[in-house]
Amino acid sequence: MSRARIVVIEDEPAIRRGVVDALRVSGYEATEAADGIRGLEEAIRQGIDLVLLDLLLPKRDGLEVLRELRRIRPTLPVIVLTARGSEDDRVRGLRLGADDYVIKPFSARELLARIEAVLRRSVDRPLKVRGARLGDAVIDCGRREVRSPKGGRVELSETEIGILSFLAENHRRAVSRAELLTRLWGFGATGNETRTIDMHITRLRAKLKNVAGASAGEAIVTVRARGYMAGPALVPETDQDEGLE
Ligand code: CA
Q: Where does 5-121 sit in CATH, by number?
């Protein structure tokens, strides 16, 4: 298993520093943010496995960050860092979908135990994929093409390969249109643009069908009210050693 990547969103420099150090010493990759806006940007980057979120933050409140995170990455594990006595925040945090909380002041040991437990039960850990198989056909992310052993071949656009690899990386869960938009066009893409995703998916399905035939029907599944998900026929190929995303 590759090292988990954790974002620490905390405005108190001493706490942030301490947490980041403890994480790195324990073998995690850690990035940090001192306010809510920056924190959200870091948290929705591809490859992030868990977020540690302080609630009282400058620029954008922690609960707001959590609400937004839940919209974009519904199953990304979040542990809330909360001050002693502020039970309201804790309850609101859990209600907004935080996976756990830790009360300040906390020991590195306690925090690490919580992180481990949350990661263990998380299904959200993305794979690092270099491509996928679809029936007999091969989806090659590097070359942006789908090849069939029978000689068929189709080129995919950057957007199409982006969608496919994102679904393959997250093949155990449904991915919302908002999340796909954010992944493809960055933070801030919203609303009406979700139809654009549907159009790309339609085109992508047609292309896959040309090369992969019947298996293509099970490549991308529409999940009602959730978005899209890699179907049973789309088998990710990982290459952990090369650290590709
Ligand atoms: Ca704070």
A: 3.40.50.2300
Per domain, the residue ranges of the chain are: 5-121, 129-238
Q: How far is the CA of 56 from the centre of ligand 1 (A)?
A: 4
The alpha carbon of 126 and the centre of ligand 1 are apart by a number of angstroms equal to: 29
Q: In the CATH scheme, what architecture does the domain 129-238 have?
A: Orthogonal Bundle (1.10)
Question: How does 136-148 read in b/e, with b if 16+ C-beta sit within 10 Å?
Answer: ebbbbbeebbbbb
- Tens digit of pLDDT per residue, the chain (245 long)? 458 999 999 999 999 999 999 999 999 999 999 999 999 999 998 889 999 999 999 999 999 999 999 888 888 999 999 886 667 777 777 777 788 889 888 999 999 999 988 887 776 566 678 889 999 999 998 899 999 998 899 999 989 999 998 899 888 788 888 888 877 776 565 556 778 899 999 999 999 999 988 888 889 999 888 889 999 899 888 765 343 33
Ligand 1 centroid from CA 33, angstroms:
11
pTM above 0.70, yes or no: no
Beta strands 137-140 and 50-54, pairing class: unpaired
> Could you give the CA distance from residue 43 to residue 47 in angstroms, rounded to a whole number?
9
